UniProtKB/TrEMBL annotation:
Residues 30-109 form the HTH arsR-type domain. It holds the Pfam family HTH_20. Gene3D superfamilies: Winged helix-like DNA-binding domain superfamily/Winged helix DNA-binding domain. InterPro entries: ArsR-like_HTH, HTH_ArsR_DNA-bd_dom, WH-like_DNA-bd_sf, WH_DNA-bd_sf. This is ArsR/SmtB family transcription factor. CDD domains: HTH_ARSR. It comes from the Bacteria.
C-alpha cells in the first residue's frame, strides 16, 4: 500500500498471522520537504508498491525526465533514507534502486506545518492530475460512442458511514486488508515496469465534536 500514509493506525491486522511491515517513518521536516516534487512521489509509489528494483532509466520513463535528472532525484531520496541502492541484476552497467522498506509513513507529530502542507499539496496535486486525465478519457469514450462496462469503478466517491469506535476499527482493518491482499497477490510479472496499474487514494477521517477532544 502506498506507503504515503498519514498516521496509518488502522493498517494493523487483527489476525495472529499478520506480520508488521518494515516501515520507513518520516520524522525530519527536511525529509518531508524533499518529497515536494511530483517525480519523487512517482518514484516512491513505484518502488514501495512494486517492492522490486528499478533503474534510473526505467523510472525516468515514467516521469518524462532524463536518466541523469532522475539519478539526481534518486540520490536526494537516498539521502533521507527513502530509497537504497540495490544489487545489480542483469546488465550491471546501470545502478538499480529499491525502496528502503515496505511502508512509508508520515509522522504528523512533526512540528513543521509548512513541510507537511507542501507534502500533502503535492500528493493531492498528483491525484488531481490523474483524476483529470481519467475525466478526459471517459469524455472521449462517450463522444466516440463507447459504452462503459457496468462494473467500471467510480473516478471518485465520497460519503460517510455511521460507526461507533469498535466498528470504525473493524472498517479500517477490513478495507486495508483488502488492499494488502491484492498487493501481496501480484506476481513478479505483474510488477513489471510495463504492467497495468490502478492508483488509489484512501482517507478515513473520523468526525470529532470538538477539535482535540479525541486524541488517540
Amino acid at each position: 500500500m502506498t506507503r504515503n500514509t498519514v498516521e496509518d493506525d488502522g493498517a494493523q491486522r487483527a489476525d495472529a498471522e499478520y506480520q508488521a511491515p518494515q516501515v520507513v517513518s518520516i520524522t525530519d521536516p527536511q525529509a518531508i520537504r524533499a518529497l515536494a516534487h511530483d517525480a519523487r512521489l512517482i518514484v516512491l509509489d513505484e518502488l514501495f508498491a512494486s517492492q522490486t528494483t528499478r533503474t534510473a532509466t526505467e523510472l525516468a520513463s515514467m516521469c518524462s525526465l532524463t536518466p541523469s535528472a532522475m539519478s539526481y532525484h534518486l540520490r536526494a531520496l537516498e539521502k533521507y533514507g527513502y530509497v537504497a541502492r540495490a544489487a545489480s541484476e542483469g546488465d550491471a552497467r546501470e545502478r538499480r534502486w529499491r525502496a528502503a522498506g515496505e511502508r512509508l509513513e508520515l509522522n504528523t507529530q512533526i512540528d513543521s506545518t509548512n513541510a507537511k502542507t507542501a507534502y500533502l499539496n503535492v500528493q493531492l496535486n498528483a491525484f488531481r492530475t490523474r483524476l483529470n486525465t481519467e475525466v478526459e478519457r471517459r469524455e472521449a469514450e462517450a463522444k466516440a460512442g463507447i459504452m462503459p462496462a457496468a462494473d467500471r469503478p467510480p473516478m471518485l466517491t465520497s460519503g460517510l458511514v455511521f460507526l461507533p469506535e469498535a466498528k470504525q476499527k473493524e472498517f479500517n482493518r477490513r478495507l486495508l486488508e483488502l488492499v494488502y491482499e491484492y498487493e501481496a497477490m501480484a506476481t513478479a510479472e505483474e510488477r513489471n515496469i510495463d504492467s497495468k496499474r490502478m492508483f488509489y487514494l484512501i482517507s478515513l477521517l473520523p468526525e470529532y465534536q470538538h477539535l482535540g477532544s479525541e486524541v488517540s
